[in-house]
Design goal:
It is a single chain. By secondary structure, the protein is an alpha/beta fold. It has eleven helices and 15 strands. Strand 8, helix 8 and strand 9 (198-202) form a beta-alpha-beta unit.
């Protein structure tokens, strides 16, 4: 199947979705999910007033890029930015024309269900400023935050926190190690006039979580601990836990395959009785049911119970082969 055939088919499948998105004031979504829709490693998204093409396995040829651009501009006459990330480190490889470079590095806006978010298609990081497959998580948090306190862990640009604040949260604490990501999060709060509700804490997740959970801060063996913000033990009505696949620091190792519990346990302890913790795991090879069962066991070891749970499945612009998307999200209400 050619690139044009695959993209045309994907756009056709999304006719209902695109109409629904427009009706719901959403102009950021995935138009082509290559792994499932025919071109492995090629993703095409709309981010507000631009199309973003990203290739992760193999660079597009000039002809392929021209064909894709023609189809996208037929769908909506917007600038097309191409980020070739096919190198092993996933960094953007290709140069752009002067006009496209200026546009890609300028701050833009997009909206999702009427919530405004900052967009910049090339910046000091690698990934776009909003993960579009997390839309269902933002929708869940927005609809469950009225009058509640919210802890947003590994917050990145605080999309979850912004949705919580727009949804009526009384306090939102966003924690991330990246000052760049938190700066974008502050812009998102300001765009929606909820900055008075949102807090932004630059910290490694391990010391932040352990302090909030009332546990002693420790580190990996023979590692000197760097300075970290001091936080008081606090519990929240809603906790959102969305760690990266793997990360290492002096305080600990984030490993979603082998040791999700090292993060989940303190995050659970920061969740109030009758509160909710939303857990995310984006590793495709992690079995959904086995992961869920391990969460329940961890809760029960702490003398608590999972009273109810809700799976949050990605929207139709992120199709999967068998209905099981690599990104798994489940909301657990705890006693």
């Amino acid at each position: 199947m050619s690139v044009t055939q695959a993209l045309s088919a994907a756009i056709s499948k999304r006719t209902h979705f695109l109409a629904h998105a427009k009706q719901n004031k959403t102009d950021c979504y995935r138009i082509f999910h290559g792994t499932v829709e025919g071109i492995n490693g090629l993703n095409i998204d709309r981010y507000g007033n631009a199309w973003l093409i990203q290739s992760f396995h193999q660079a597009l040829t000039e002809d392929e890029l021209s064909q894709i651009t023609a189809l996208l501009t037929q769908e909506s006459m917007l600038p097309v930015i191409y980020n070739d990330r096919s190198n092993k480190n996933s960094r953007v490889l290709n140069t752009l024309t002067a006009d496209n470079q200026a546009f890609a590095t300028s701050e833009q806006q997009m909206q999702e269900n009427g919530i405004l978010f900052s967009s910049k298609l090339r910046h000091e990081g690698q990934d776009p400023l909003l993960f579009l497959d997390m839309r269902v998580g933002r929708e869940y948090v927005k609809s469950h935050s009225q009058g509640r306190t919210v802890l947003n862990l590994f917050s990145y640009t605080c999309g979850i926190g912004t949705a919580a604040a727009v949804g009526g949260a009384t306090r939102v604490v966003n924690i991330d190690f990246s000052s760049f990501a938190l700066a974008a999060g502050k812009i998102n709060a300001q765009l929606n006039q909820v900055e008075n509700v949102c807090e932004f804490i630059q910290s490694d997740a391990f010391p932040a979580l352990r302090q909030l959970a009332g546990l002693k801060v420790g580190g990996r063996r023979n590692q000197k601990l760097p300075a970290y913000p001091k936080l008081a033990a606090t519990q929240f009505d809603l906790v959102f836990l969305d760690p990266p696949r793997y990360a290492k620091s002096a305080f600990g190792i984030v490993d979603l395959i082998n040791d999700y519990q090292s993060l989940f346990k303190p995050a659970m302890l920061t969740t109030k009785p009758e509160g909710t913790i939303v857990c995310c795991n984006n590793v495709a090879k992690v079995d959904r049911q086995a992961w869920f069962d391990s969460l329940v066991r961890c809760v029960e070891k702490q003398g608590r119970q999972v009273n109810s749970h809700t799976w949050l499945d990605c929207h139709e612009d992120f199709p999967s082969f068998d209905g099981n998307h690599p990104l798994k999200m489940v909301a657990l209400t705890l006693s």
